[in-house]
């Protein structure tokens, strides 16, 4: 049977490791050896693969725990929480994107929308994050980065720690006793899993953040389209820094490289004439500007948002899903607890029993003792 670990499995595995700390080693030895013989008999796992064997051990242990007690394991709770976040956070992202778009394009009709504001708020910030990810991967490949975890992982850790702290505070009063214990177990195990497995928890957090940004960009794109089609929007540019229209034109052409081969110039990006005609000079106002120049920016802005915002985030979501599966397939199970379980499963249980003597003083069996090996 091929091993397919999940995050629920990881939390349940650490839960069993933690529960076994107060149990006598001989009892654990008999239990784990019995599980191993059961696995061997049913041929439900690869006996030479640590991942497969521990996963089979975990599944049987779950059945034994379910038969002995009604206490819920933390794994299903973790799986449910991840599924809920994967559904809820993108929806929140869509709502945030729609509200951001509607607020940004609240146009009174007297001042055009400054395209620099749109580009810096919604495009350049995302490009900087993408550049950071690419640059760090490049430096890590050549051994120039020494820190164990990326900056984004530490950011996710800080945010998660604060969330855990708030949850623990609320659990004391808002959640019933039995459910509160289960939640607290999960929160405690999260720290252990983070310490033992490190980057394994980075990818689901990264995936959730990218899905949220996919929702945000989709909502922002929808709000922008809505404003463009239902309002008389005008776009222009102005800056305290004095640079020429030609410089801006070259920069716009560079940004449009991913789609400039697909669309004509007037749609892919504004022409030099349109850029010159949409420049806003404060003392002159906008009444001398031509309408065709003021509306020439919106296809370019939509395409920027579509490519650099939505498409790139979808690609990163797919990439994070791949690395999640890769990390789970190649999970490192070299902790002392895992090695102890493997040792107990592989080591036969040896029991020595002396010969019994009846009331008359005679031995029930002929030999003095015997040894039984399992």
Question: Main traits of this protein?
Answer:
4% strand
Overall strand count: 4
Structural class label: mainly alpha
| Largest sheet geometry | 2 strands, parallel
The helix tally amounts to 15
**Beginning-to-end CA distance, first to last residue:** 24 Å
What percent of residues are in strands?
Answer: under 5%
Q: Quaternary status of these chains?
A: single chain
**pLDDT averaged residue by residue:** 79
Helical proportion? 55-70%
- What general form does the structure show? elongated
Strand line-up in the sheet with most strands: 1-2
In terms of per-residue confidence, which ranges show pLDDT below 50 for 5 or more consecutive residues?
Answer: 174-180, 363-371
Please provide the ordered H/E string of secondary-structure elements. Answer: HHHHEHHHHEHHHHHHHEE
Describe the protein's topology.
Elements: H1 7-19, H2 25-42, H3 50-68, H4 74-104, E1 113-114, H5 115-141, H6 151-174, H7 177-197, H8 202-230, E2 235-236, H9 245-255, H10 257-260, H11 265-268, H12 272-277, H13 291-294, H14 298-329, H15 336-346, E3 350-354, E4 369-373
Parallel strand pairs: 1-2
Antiparallel strand pairs: 3-4
Helix pairs in contact: 1-3, 1-4, 1-7, 2-3, 2-15, 4-7, 4-8, 5-14, 6-7, 8-14
How would you explain this protein's 3D organization?
This protein is mainly alpha-helical. Helix content is 68%, strand content 4%. The protein has helices spanning 7-19, 25-42, 50-68, 74-104, 115-141, 151-174, 177-197, 202-230, 245-255, 257-260, 265-268, 272-277, 291-294, 298-329, 336-346; strands spanning 113-114, 235-236, 350-354, 369-373.
